[in-house]
């Protein structure tokens, strides 16, 4: 068995890590600076964050490479450093995992390009595949155990990323998550059921949801995937609550206790791999891991889920308008707030 299969053979929930970008900003990263350059400039800081997630109980930790594709790095004229920054990130995390002496997987993190694929947008599919392949090759060369494609909105783009991975690393397990932040769908209209079917057929080792507008929204996505009859493990990585834009910065108000309750809820709803996203910290992951360890997980069956493909419940018109405003603010907070050029 490979390391991924060995981890899956363990009973019960598996803990993933939390936000990297939030922690880097707390350590001094400035808005507009690429988090990936800290792999070279401040490797001790990056490793320290990952060390704290491992100590908190994370069994899968992501590299600091969410924006490490040529597409994102080109925004700051750093596209020539894709291989260096991604390979270094994987080497750093591999060293930290080995120093811990724990059975922790190194997950090479691949985020969206930031562009929209043609014909709606300008990014050609072949170019997307090539760009993601370049990033994946560097992560695999640095020692990643799995590759983790996350925060996607478009099935075409996530399929391009998957194809890019398979071009350079045919055997490595690939974990995929999308962000269902628009009334139960991604920004590009993909439902949880559609994502589960398409990504499972593509060969994903695990499928799920991350980021978004808070724990309730992500829980609903997991319930819908579970109702559709998944054949692979489900992944849940929620933000620490719905982000609020305060003085130009994203603020996440979910405490570790709130996230501990979320961890129990999503596990009972069917998620196997559970972590957190923007706004979270090692304290959140520790509380989540402790709640899952201490709870009687067999005492309560998974709650009933909506039938596969069921649309979100209708809201009164006034409530819907208020909800749209809240989601616009949340999206503005995620894209213009404390995650800056982006690193979860």
Notes on the structure:
This protein is an alpha/beta fold. It has one domain (3-336): Homocysteine-binding-like domain (TIM Barrel, Alpha-Beta Barrel). Helix content is 45%, strand content 13%. Strands 1-10-7-6-5-4-3-2 form an eight-stranded parallel beta sheet. Strands 8-9 form a two-stranded antiparallel ribbon. β6 (206-211), α10 (215-227) and β7 (234-238) form a beta-alpha-beta unit. It is globular and about 50 Å long. 53% of the residues are buried. Mean pLDDT is 89; it is low at 299-342.
The count of DSSP E runs of length 2 or more, i.e. the number of strands, is: 10
* CATH fold title: TIM Barrel
Proportion of beta-strand residues: 5-15%
Integer tally of domains = 1
**What is the CA-CA span between the terminal residues?**
30 Å
Bulk shape: globular
Name the average pLDDT: 89
Element pattern in H and E: HEHHHEHHEHEHEHEHEEEHEHH
């Amino acid at each position: 068995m490979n390391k991924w299969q060995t981890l899956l053979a363990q009973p019960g929930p598996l803990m993933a890590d939390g936000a990297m970008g939030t922690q880097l900003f707390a350590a001094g990263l400035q808005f507009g600076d690429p988090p990936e350059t800290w792999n070279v400039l401040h490797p001790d800081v990056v490793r320290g964050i990952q060390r704290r997630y491992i100590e908190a109980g994370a069994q899968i930790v992501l590299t600091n490479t969410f924006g490490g594709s040529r597409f994102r790095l080109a925004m700051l004229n750093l596209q020539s450093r894709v291989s260096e920054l991604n390979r270094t990130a994987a080497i750093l995390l591999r060293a930290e995992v080995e120093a811990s002496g724990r059975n922790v997987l190194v997950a090479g993190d691949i985020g969206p390009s930031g562009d929209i694929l043609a014909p709606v947008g300008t990014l050609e599919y072949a170019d997307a595949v090539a760009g993601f392949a370049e990033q994946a090759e560097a992560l695999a060369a640095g020692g990643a155990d799995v590759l983790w494609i996350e925060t996607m909105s478009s099935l075409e783009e996530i399929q391009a990323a998957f194809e890019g991975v398979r071009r350079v690393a045919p055997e490595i397990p690939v974990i995929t998550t999308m962000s269902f932040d628009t009334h139960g769908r991604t920004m590009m209209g993909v439902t949880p059921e559609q994502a589960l079917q398409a990504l499972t057929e593509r060969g994903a080792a695990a499928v799920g949801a991350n980021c978004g507008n808070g724990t309730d929204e992500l829980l609903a996505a997991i319930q819908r995937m579970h109702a559709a009859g998944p054949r692979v493990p489900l992944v849940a990585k929620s933000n620490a609550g719905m982000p609020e834009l305060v003085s130009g910065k994203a603020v996440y108000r979910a405490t570790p206790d709130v996230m501990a309750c979320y961890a129990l809820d999503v596990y009972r709803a069917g998620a196997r791999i559970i972590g957190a996203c923007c706004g979270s910290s090692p304290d959140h992951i520790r509380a989540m891991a402790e709640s899952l360890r201490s709870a009687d997980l067999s005492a309560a069956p998974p709650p009933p889920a909506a039938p596969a493909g069921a649309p979100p419940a209708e809201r009164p018109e006034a409530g819907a308008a208020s909800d749209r405003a809240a989601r616009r603010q949340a999206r503005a907070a995620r894209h213009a707030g404390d995650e800056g050029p982006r690193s979860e």
